[in-house]
Amino acid sequence: MGKKGGKRTYYIYLFRHGQTYYNKKGIFTGWLNSRLTPKGIRQAKIIARKLKNKKFQAAFYTKLSRSDETLKYVLKYHMECKKLVKDDRMIERSYGVLEGTSHEAFIAKIGKKLYNLEVEGDAMGTIRPALRKQIERFLGRKEYESIHRGYDVAIKNGESYADVEKRVKSFIKDLVDYIKENRVNVAISAHSNSIRLFRKIMENSSREEISKWFIPYDKVFTYKIHV
User: Fold this and answer.
1) Where are the domains of the chain?
2) Which residues contact 117 (CB under 8 A, 6 or more apart)?
3) Would you state the torsion angle of the CA atoms of residues 33, 39, 41, 43, taken in this order, to the nearest 10 degrees?
4) Domain 2-94+171-205+213-226: what homologous superfamily?
5) What is the per-residue burial (b if ≥16 Cβ within 10 Å, else e) of 183-197?
6) pLDDT value at position 145?
7) Cα angle 222-213-193, degrees, rounded to a multiple of 5
8) Which residue from 2, 24, 115, 125 has the least number of CB within 10 angstroms?
9) CA distance 67 to 44
10) DSSP letter string over the chain?
11) What radius of gyration do the chain's Cα atoms show?
């Protein structure tokens, strides 16, 4: 905690869970559970070391095991954290009918033009860059560029980015109120797309910007709240 212009400064430490087995295999995970890989555990420990000398009194996580598991490594250094809160407004985006589908199978169907890309094309933001090149070969560069318009359209039985943004915005509002009321720093163990929308709101970024972001497994995003 610090002071700025007579106000105190409180900190939000936001980080992604470590790599899971589904991440490693290139599977759309969404609300499915998948455990951390050995690499994912190492990444969680990197986050823990980065936060070792920080102080926070409350931590938030989701019902998905990868969020909880990552947070446990972080909490080993934080006996001062007495409040743990499960809040699924920071859960991963639901990929609906795509959950459990491999990226390779998704790309193959794109190659055969079997997917409604206006609806499901923005799911490609999850796919690593090397595989996106395959999609470009199937579709052509212009068509690939044009499909990033599904922000407000949900994947079948899943969520749109707009849906995720709505719940993350609600979470941020309550989080700021919580920090102001309790005068605490907080840590949040979250997921790629909830972090993407959290950053969009807190950094006042555009839809175009966030579609280009990759959210690393071993980075801490820090935000200040002045009270």
Assistant:
1) 2-94+171-205+213-226, 98-146
2) 110, 139, 147
3) -110
4) Phosphoglycerate mutase-like (3.40.50.1240)
5) ebbbbbbbbbbbbbb
6) 52
7) 75
8) 2
9) 10
10) -EEETTEEEEEEEEEEPPPBHHHHHTB--TTS--PBPHHHHHHHHHHHHHHTT---SEEEE-SSHHHHHHHHHHHTT-TT--EEEE-GGGSPPP-GGGTT-BHHHHHHHHHTT-S-HHHHGGGGGGS-HHHHHHHHHHH-HHHHHHTTT-TTSPPTTS--HHHHHHHHHHHHHHHHHHHHHHT--EEEEE-HHHHHHHHHHHHT--HHHHTT----SS-EEEEEEE-
11) 18
Per-block average pLDDT, block size 10, for the chain (227 residues)?
74 98 93 98 98 98 98 98 98 92 80 62 66 68 51 84 96 98 98 96 92 90 96
pLDDT at position 193, please? 93
pLDDT at residue 185, rounded to an integer: 98
Q: Which residues of 157-167 are buried (b: 16+ CB within 10 A; e: fewer)?
A: ebbbbebbbeb
* pTM given for the model: 0.86
Q: ∠164-178-210 over CA atoms, to 5°?
A: 30
Residue 206 CA from chain centroid, whole number: 16
- Pair of tokens at residue 74: 């972080």
